[in-house]
Amino acid sequence: MGCIIMAMAFAMFSGIAAYGIWAGLKQDGDIAQFTDETRIAVPSDPGTAEEWNALKARLREFESRALQKAPARLELSVRDLNLAIANSDLLLESREMIFFEKIHEGGIDARISMPINRIAFWKEPRYLNGTALLAIESNELQLFVRMKDVEVPGKTVEEGFIERLAQSNLLAPYKGENAPLEKVLDAISSAKIEGEEIVIIAAPEKNQPPAS
């Protein structure tokens, strides 16, 4: 249920996890320049049971229609993203990591507190505490979620970190043969930001062979 919204939330975390591997090639001193020893508290917005149930119903309807190759449109607000983070059992371990703050023409703003692996893997992780800017894009073939920028108050985030994230489609782990979200993601024909919402469209024409 609700695989689309879960995929977008997980995308951010998988991007940070990938960086954890890259960071392992660096010295702990480099990582320490823009991380902290402890996480910071991020807000949470669980809403009411009625609000969460209403969101789940919309997600289920979109997913069902998309998998049936029927036209479908899903509109997601910042509130929707945060309701999913606060209520979905699939995102239980991520509730202390991210809070979405604003959707605008330039992307999606989020407050983050993400663990980053050290080169000495047996030590406790350090934490990337700050804000992030995500972009959601699509072309004829697939949906993209990219992390365009990360800022940490009073610190300089290493340029290579931001470049790596900006080049990566953070939904990649959920696509491909036998991937759990392959069918749903493949059904999406477009995704964009309209005003203060993410709009995701599933159109049956995408999955039809070209006319001969």
Give a brief rundown of this model.
By secondary structure, the protein is of the alpha+beta class.
Description:
The structure is a single chain. The protein is α+β, with helices and mostly antiparallel strands. The protein has helices at residues 3-23, 28-32, 49-67, 78-87, 159-167, 182-187, and strands spanning 72-76, 98-104, 107-116, 126-138, 143-151, 188-194, 197-202. The strands form 2 sheets. The chain has a 4-stranded antiparallel β-sheet with strand order 2-3-4-5. Strands 1-7-6 form a 3-stranded antiparallel β-sheet. Strand 6 (188-194) and strand 7 form a beta hairpin. It is globular.
Number of E-state strands = 7
Q: Strand share of the residues?
A: 25-35%
Would you tell me the structural class of the helices and strands? alpha+beta
Mean pLDDT score, rounded?
A: 80
Q: Alpha-carbon distance between the termini?
A: 36 Å
Q: Radius of gyration over alpha carbons?
A: 18 Å
Give the proportion of residues in helices. Answer: 25-40%
* General form: globular
Low-confidence stretches: 207-212
Order of helices and strands: HHHEHEEEEHHEE
Tally of separate helices: 6
Largest sheet: 4 strands, antiparallel
Give the neighbour order of strands across the main sheet.
2-3-4-5
What is the quaternary state of this protein?
Answer: single chain
